[in-house]
Design goal:
The complex is a heterodimer of chains A (about 400) and B (about 425). Chain A has about 400 residues and is α/β, with parallel strands linked by helices. Chain A folds into two domains: about 260 residues, Rossmann fold (3-Layer(aba) Sandwich); about 80 residues, formyl-coa transferase, domain 3, CATH 3.30.1540.10. Chain A has a six-stranded parallel β-sheet with strand order 3-2-1-4-5-6, sandwiched between helices. Chain A is elongated, with a radius of gyration of 25 Å. The two termini of chain A are about 35 Å apart. In chain B, helix 2 packs across helix 8. In chain B, the strands form four sheets. In chain B, strands 3-2-1-4-5-6 form a six-stranded parallel β-sheet, covered by helices on one side. In chain B, strands 9-10-11 form a three-stranded antiparallel β-sheet, covered by helices on one side. Chain B has about 425 residues and is of the alpha/beta class. The chains are: A alpha/beta (about 400), B alpha/beta (about 425). Chains A and B meet through helix 2, helix 6, helix 7, strand 6 and helix 8 of A and helix 3, helix 7, helix 8, strand 6 and helix 9 of B.
Chain lengths: ~400, ~425
Amino acid sequence: MIQALQGVKIVDFSWVAAGPLTTRVLADFGATVIKIESSIRPDPLRFEYPFANNMPGINRSVCFAIYNANKYSMALNMSISKGRDIAKRLIKQADVVIDNFTPGTMERWGLGYNELIKIKSDIIMLNLTLQGQTGSYSKQPGLGFMLQALGGFTSLLGWPDRTFPGTQLPYTDYIGCYFAAVAIVEALEYRRRTGKGQYIDVSQLESGISFLSSAILDYTVNGRVEKVKGNRCPYAAPHGAYRCRGEDRWCTIAVFTDHEWQALCQLIGSPALRGDKFATLLGRKRNEDELNHLIEEWTINYSAEEVMERLQSSGIACGIVETGEDMHRDPQLKHRQYFWFLEHPEIGVTSCSAPPIQLSKTPPRGRMPAPCLGEHTEFVCTNFLGMSDEEFVELSNEGVFR
Amino acid sequence: MDSREEQNNVTSLLSFRVLDLTDEKGWFCGKILGDLGADVIKIERPGGDPGRNIGPFYHDLVHSEKSLYWWAFNTSKRGITLNIESRDGQEIFRRLVRNADVVIESFPPGYMGGLGLDYASLTSVNPSLIMTSITPFGQTGPYKDYKASDITLNAMSGFMYICGDPDQPPLRFSVEQSQAHAGLHAALATLVAHYYCGLTGEGQHVDVAMRECFPSEWAQSVWFALKTNPQRTGPFIARHLIKRNIFACKDGHVAFNVWLGSMGQKTYNLIKWMEEEGMAGDMSEVEWSNIEDKNVTQAEIVAWEETIAKFFLTHTKSELVQEAVKRDFMLFPLNTIDDVVHYEQLTERDFWKEVQHNELGISVTYPGSPFRSTEFQWQIFRRAPLIGEHNREVYIDELGFCEDEFLALRQGGII
């Protein structure tokens, strides 16, 4: 089957989350991604919980398996010059080089953009960092877990009377990575038309802020600092997550119009909801605590699945607060083949979410599971570099492929 | 960087035309393509996109030309009105499609087909067309007609369940995120299809399901690996150990984690400072780089966090951040939106962009480019369009309607 980015070769020095997510989606669309690793300094995500069957191991991290499906892994010792020479030989044949190290790391290896264009004049190089390549804070260390606080996200998730919880995820990584992918695909198209490569600097902070644009304008125009609203919405009620039957089971309900409200009243059939008190949006907003209480008195009697089905049948936006388990049995996700089940040599079948996109002619595909560390070193040397067996053995003995 | 910035004069997508039929679910996709240089024509129903009624508003004036939400996600687009439910409207739309590369739409599945404007029909007008459809759950399948708003999509994505406190309902962000995630993925997929079209001349249909666009790998992977679901933990991150992620300081909060192993050195850099101020307690004894999470008990983590929490209370956010930069440890301030807008780093990088709103005689500060390139410059080419602002330009100058026809179309409620 044809894929849109088939033939695009990416040398990928990135690790942990944001960079690997960028190359993962490009690989899903058909790009060949060679992940450069080293047993001396493996991708830290390889050591991250959870491990398959709860057994730790360098090839057993399930997050690593998701973020690195469809890629080759080459072990390369970048601390010695022969390792760096091999990297240069790979880059000579590549279209794209990506890393997410703190600024200066690639330069120390002699692999800064100014060096790379000497090796391959039309190379596309992308560096994805927390705060960009320039500015006083560009070298400040950190992770997406904390960067969401810097970017304003943490201040916008929570209940008015409680400590901000933050997400348990490196939230901005999931934004920066796809902007980086946008930049790379756009750069490939630009190169196709003009023959020119380019250097791209992605700041996760800056790309993340675009997701808060309306709140930013509310401040720059009106001077208002957006605050947390729990699950409430200023122009809808009921609007929130309501407890259903079972342990920690929830359904969200969002009612925007009178029509939806009447449908909900009819469904619940409680006289308490029918009164004038809740007949209008303003009435429902004014009495929102009581309203929520009455709604929950009804939802608690039903499973989340039942609540969703009944409300959706009445034309009301309603959805189960799904867990990972729910997602794996969700009929719509099944229909869209959202999970790729890829056979991994050490951990058996892995479940990897596909991109949220279907392309009618060149669909994304799960071709291979995430690689074991250095699994494709010899393959890459032979097939991509045309290296002789003798040279491979010689370099191996010198510790180049560690 | 200076020499590179001087070359920033070529815009990348110049010859690429996008017809944007979306409501708020898909605005961001067209904005991304527009800011990259595509000619994006936002097509609204006569009277304007209903999403123009979503706040916040300029000076809190609820008005279809003053929605900041509309402004924020419709920059770099031209705007026309067109009733595609009318026969004339459909005819005009097909003429526009002939000279377009991409159509973006976010109607319920089947709606475009009902008007004879689905992907298959439009390819008879333009065989290499790319059509990007953005819907809550996708074009086909048992949930394709389910209704959804932002909170529904949060819920069904697997993202919301783990957001919030254990004794409270799952939470969503107070600023809607579903349309932003979906718009970004849709823009990426559209560019992938466009690249393929450049190579082969073939268009295709791009089908984006919004609820799949949220980050949910964590929830999925924990269940798949361990057959348990990760829980809501409040201001803590639960992995092998449960670690506090948000700490109070003298004048606010900061985000900090006790990292060990390969990042233990960074933690030690903080402990050294605490030692200097006599507040490190027994934490000085720990060999931060040589211990991993698996060698540590939850009780030890809690005890360390208490010591650190006491120390943070003796300093302001700004002191902690300055030392984090100087001493190389991993800590960020918990910023509110005003802090973000005034953050030095963003000013130094010239991130914010002033955009003229001449109709109001004002200039407004917008978030700038999500990435920088040596070759093409992301920019806000124009503020979001007013209702029908470019009708005359598109219908008369480009499509060649005469004044009488233009008037007839307006009076007929078609444009």
